[in-house]
Amino acid sequence: MSEIKIFDTTLRDGEQSPGVNLNQLEKLEIAKQLERFGIDRMEAGFPASSKGDFNAVKTIAETIRDTSVTGLARAVKSDIDACWEALKGAPEPCLHVFLATSPIHMTYKLKKSPEQVINTAVDMVSYARQKFPQVEWSAEDASRSDLEFLAQIIERVIDAGATVINLPDTVGYATPAEYGNMFRYITETVPNIDRVRLSCHCHNDLGLAVANSIAAVENGATQVEGTVNGIGERAGNVALEEVAVALKIRSDHYPYTTNLKLNETKRTSDLVAKLTGMYVQANKAVIGRNAFAHESGIHQDGVLKHASTYEIITPEMVGVSSNTLFLGKHSGRHAFKDKVQELGYELSDEKLQEAFNLFKLLTDRKKEVTDDDLFTILTEIQTDTSKVDKYQLEMFQVQYGTTNIPTATVKLKSPAGETLQAACTGQGSVEALYKTLDSLIKEDLHLVDYQLNSVGRGKDALAESHVQLVINGDPMNGRGSAQDVIEASANAFLNAVNRYIVYQQTSNKKQAVK
Ligand code: KIV
Ligand code: ZN
């Protein structure tokens, strides 16, 4: 068995998914979970793209000890310098620098000749190696590049000091046979290839990302790059959990192992889904809600007789539990603290008290609080930016019926401490509520997306809402939970507005990547 390294780019390529914007605390929570998951290297962001990304990468580099941390740079000195400033506190600073090599990208995007591209790549890798012990060089759009040219540039950047060579299928265009052939060709042709690790990076535009990644591994790649839940640009990146579980379950066929702790898969997937607002579809491989559900009578009968009849992956293997019932109304602080620790959260005394108060409020309304409920509360507490003055919901009331006009009344406290009150009507209860909130908030607001989900099952399940707003021209996400769907919706809306206030204060605006 040979070991395949797992490189996670959830916080960089994943964060480039339309509609996703994570703040620093959320990125840090995901980074900690990636470390628990056993990721070998994580790409924490793109430091030159914004102050927010820079700070997030720096904090992650200074916090994470057991997973190597990297940052992305274009092939320009200022990007490499920004990465160094953000990453120098990491135990093993690593840079990921990329330059496109396909005729399409060189002609239309870079407007450089192949010779100029080679020179820039070599210069930037040598420059980076003066600072970084580890430099990964990516040939963007490798799968649409000329193979001879690719072999030539790879040989030169290895001589310049690259330690990892990554060959992305940037637009998800390759077939498994083509992608595998490219890796075989490079392995057989480039004379100094044994000095580096070879890496694959697949996008999923044609739904071939897992097959392509495995084809690369079968032809010499020893690192797979991807994201949790497969989030990312357009149709996303390869879902790392799918690659790792495929290698594990078919270890009779694939002689490869990874360092992932597969029983952390569910938790990692849930955290990424919750914080990004990109929920996985019920039938998603490995981790979807239905991945272990057997509906037809014939299947149920088979599974009852012997699980292996229809179940190739056990729920336990990927950390799917039966959502153990947890604490109730009479549970004390001690039992609560034990449970928080068991779930792997480290909270300050102040945050623990805050979480306990929320838990107690919930037990007034809900008989049994489950692990999923607690996970929702703890994630909110851990990623709360409560130090900043924000809008607070003091009270709301919504009147709704089939024969009257939905009307909402809302009382808010503004960041400046004033009490604001208004009432509006709408076509439905959420619209009335959102129109009222909009009328009270001075920012220019547009609702782009609204989602409502239940946390776990049962008639008293918590509701969780996600919204995407455009606030003064900037996209901003918000999420909120409550036992009532309207209250969860109000919380999500205000959360987006409050995140915008924090974002503005730290002027985290992203620059476009060319
Ligand atoms: O898909 C891609 O080509 C990338 C590069 C920046 C590595 O994400
Ligand atoms: Zn990519």
Q: What would your notes on this structure say?
A:
The two termini are 40 Å apart. The chain has four domains: 2-276, Aldolase class I (TIM Barrel), CATH 3.20.20.70; 293-320, no CATH class; 333-382, no CATH class; 392-505, Double Stranded RNA Binding Domain, CATH 3.30.160. Helix 7 runs parallel beside helix 8, helix 13 packs across helix 14 and helix 15 packs parallel to helix 16 (485-505). The chain has 16 helices and 16 strands. The mean pLDDT is 93. The protein is an alpha/beta fold and 514 residues long. The chain has helices at residues 24-37, 51-63, 77-87, 103-110, 114-129, 147-159, 176-189, 209-218, 240-249, 265-276, 297-305, 333-342, 349-365, 371-382, 429-440, 485-505; strands at 2-3, 5-8, 41-43, 68-74, 94-100, 134-140, 164-169, 197-202, 223-226, 256-257, 392-399, 407-413, 419-425, 445-455, 462-471, 474-482. 39% of the residues lie in helices and 19% in strands. Belongs to the alpha-IPM synthase/homocitrate synthase family. LeuA type 1 subfamily. Residues 4-266 form the Pyruvate carboxyltransferase domain. Mn(2+) binds at residues 13, 201, 203, 237.
- CATH architecture of the largest domain, by name, is Alpha-Beta Barrel
And the CATH topology of the largest domain?
Answer: TIM Barrel
Q: State the helical fraction.
A: 25-40%
Q: What number of domains?
A: 4
Major beta sheet, specifics?
A: 8 strands, parallel, barrel
The number of helical segments is 16
Q: End-to-end distance, in Å?
A: 40 Å
Bound molecules: 3-methyl-2-oxobutanoic acid, zinc ion
| Radius of gyration, CA atoms, in whole angstroms | 25 Å
The average pLDDT is: 93
Question: Can you tell me the CATH superfamily of the largest domain?
Answer: Aldolase class I
* Global outline: globular
- Strand order, largest beta sheet: 2-3-4-5-6-7-8-9
| Broad structural category | alpha/beta
